[in-house]
Design goal:
This protein is of the alpha+beta class and 216 residues long. The protein contains ten helices and four strands; from the N terminus they run βαβααββααααααα. α1 packs parallel to α4 (67-77), α1 (12-23) packs across α7 and α5 runs parallel beside α7 (161-179). Bound molecules: glutathione.
Length: 216
Amino acid sequence: MAITFYYGSGSPFAWKVWCVLEHKQLPYEWKRLQFNVAELKSEAFLAVNPRGKVPAIVDEDVVVYESNAIVEYLEERYPERSILGSGNANRARNRRMAAEADHYLYPLQRELFVQTLFRPADKGRDRAAIDKAIEAIVHELAHWERSLGSAQYFGGDEPSLADWAAFPVMRAFVRVEEREPDNGLGDKTPAWMRAYIARMEALPIIQKTWPPHWKG
Ligand SMILES: N[C@@H](CCC(=O)N[C@@H](CS)C(=O)NCC(=O)O)C(=O)O
């Protein structure tokens, strides 16, 4: 039976889980929820995730929410086509970077969105707050540059969980630059990250899982 996958377009956590489902070539039924009370806080969805957040999955009688719990569940339940690689060191490295993406990278994306795309146009823009957010992002990206080293992917020669976790957040930085080109992030985006993003965007998994509301 196919896994039911509850998704929200633009959520980096949901994008990560979608990439993992594709990486593992698992059958799933994709259910896109809109970010509104009617859908996320409906009785039906709260029965799946009482927090009313995406992503979530239902696999027969198993319900899992929280993206890291979901990807760990999928890895244990369906170990073929591992997202963690082989050997304790690789597996720990992937888990470490997935945690870093959530705890260090994502909050910076969130703050940048709050200051730009999520801020009503009639409120204008707080230049100092945007500059501060960009400065924090540039500082954080230095850690990612060190982790990547000369590899193609954070996972090494092939993309793995570290990439499925980090790429959606990094691509969201670029999204802000595309939507508000004057914000100054573009000039500060490191060349290695642009090259990495281009490499990831060329992957069939990323093309297939592209956030629907970013298309067109
Ligand atoms: N820690 C959770 C975060 C999930 C999360 O915050 N999802 C957001 C989208 S990025 C959401 O559904 N927000 C809707 C809401 O809070 O009403 C995970 O890893 O799954």
